[in-house]
Amino acid sequence: MRTPAETMTAYFDGWRRHDAESLREVLAEDVVFDGPMGHVEGIEDNVASLHGLLSIVTDVQVRHVFVDGPDVLTVYDLHTTATDAPMLTVNWAHVVDGRARTIRAVFDPRPLLGT
């Protein structure tokens, strides 16, 4: 079984490969995502949402990972085709039995909204 840090490393490795389907291996069936652009529940809807997101992601550069038991906080620069500059993003995941159960993302959505 993966540690929480290994789970989230695999998660972001899937992003870098633009492989949303591989994320099924690290997401819990009842995973819940919350972020500035929306709320998504369940593995099917999360994978579908990630397919959309990964279509504009060009790179993910992890700056730092903080681990506190089952909680993993990843600070990264998100590069996309929709923005000129990378977006500083913080992702807080709660991992149970090697799978992310909850994921919360924090970033300024204005560059994506054109404001």
UniProtKB/TrEMBL annotation:
Residues 9-99 form the SnoaL-like domain. Pfam families: SnoaL_2. Gene3D superfamilies: 3.10.450.50. It comes from the Bacteria. This is Nuclear transport factor 2 family protein. It comes from Actinomycetospora lemnae.
